[in-house]
Amino acid sequence: TKYFTEAIAYAEKITDDDFRFMSFGNIAVVLARAGRVDESTTLAEKITDDDFRPYPFSLIAQALAQTGKIDEAITIAEKITDDDYRSFAFAAIVQALAQAGKIDEAIAYAEKITDDDSKSSAFIAIAQALTRAGKTDEATKYFTEAIAYAEKITDDDFRFMSFGNIAVVLARAGRVDESTTLAEKITDDDFRPYPFSLIAQALAQTGKIDEAITIAEKITDDDYRSFAFAAIVQALAQAGKIDEAIAYAEKITDDDSKSSA
User: Fold this and answer.
1) What average pLDDT does the structure give for the chain?
2) Residue 159: its pLDDT value, please?
3) Which residues contact 113 (CB under 8 A, 6 or more apart)?
4) For every residue of the chain, which 3-state class applies, written as one string?
5) Alpha carbon separation from 117 to 17, 51, 120, 144, 181 (Å, rounded)
6) CA distance linking residue 86 with residue 75, whole number of Å
7) Model confidence over 11-53: pLDDT tens digits?
8) What is the pTM of this model?
9) Between vectors from CA 159 to CA 153 and to CA 161, what angle results, nearest 5°?
10) What do you get for the CA distance between the two ends of the chain, in Å?
11) pLDDT of residue 44
């Protein structure tokens, strides 16, 4: 608290409006992420230039949504003037509503999102909630929409990241074929290891060990490949195939994964 107070005090001394508002915004974001939402909001309200207000308020809305204060989050999100930041805030609200089982409300707020990346993440949250509720057919609709919006993302890095996130959710939902099909669209090796490690884990956990091994051996990142092999070792050990389990454990280079294997 002492150093937050000092940081604000020094920021208030900055004579250039743009730099002062930028500093207020940065401090407000740190406060919001620390769960100090009231202080964050008070500080962000001192930013009178609309160019600098959307960023901190989008994070404040996210923090409120994540702590269950959804009505307050909505009030703030609806005042954000920038489309992308407002979309980011609404995506956080959709995720909170979906996790609370309020699917209809989540869908309504997802429709307010104009940014493709945020819309994709919102639809994924809805698909997850429907999967948990056993509504597989409805979940399929929102998985499909999430992928469709992800495919519209023009920035390669963000598109591949979105594909990876959706692929992971699909794998965890047991929809491994769809997950693999989507992950194959990721052509950048920086983004492929994460989803494929989870796909390998999902395959191993459902007894498809040979398929899991095939995928794991293609993973280029040591840590993610180790994670996949650890899941394979666990599946082999549970199946009583101890010699094979030991052989694959020897392929693991990451200490944490090796320990769990």
Assistant:
1) 91
2) 94
3) 87, 90, 91, 94, 119, 122
4) CHHHHHHHHHHHCCCCHHHHHHHHHHHHHHHHHCCCHHHHHHHHCCCCCCCCCHHHHHHHHHHHHHCCCHHHHHHHHCCCCCHHHHHHHHHHHHHHHHHCCCHHHHHHHHCCCCCHHHHHHHHHHHHHHHHHCCCHHHHHHHHHHHHHHHHCCCCHHHHHHHHHHHHHHHHHCCCHHHHHHHHCCCCCCCCCHHHHHHHHHHHHHCCCHHHHHHHHCCCCCHHHHHHHHHHHHHHHHHCCCHHHHHHHHCCCCCHHHHHHC
5) 32, 21, 5, 14, 20
6) 11
7) 989 999 889 888 888 888 888 888 888 888 888 888 888 888 8
8) 0.78
9) 150
10) 43
11) 87
- Name, in order, each residue with C-beta under 8 angstroms of 3's C-beta and a sequence gap of 6 or more: none
Q: Specify the amino acid at residue 207.
A: G
Residue 198 identity: L
Query: Which of 117, 202, 136, 144 has its CA nearest to residue 168?
Result: 202
pLDDT in tens, 98-140: 999 999 999 999 999 999 999 999 999 999 999 989 999 999 9
* Count of CA atoms in the C-beta half-sphere (13 A) of 30: 12
Phi/psi for 110 (5° steps) reads -60, -35
Contact assessment for residue 89 and residue 57, using Cβ atoms and an 8 Å cutoff: yes
Structure tokens at 22: 């930028």
Cα–Cα distance measured from residue 253 to residue 224, given in angstroms and rounded to the nearest whole number: 10
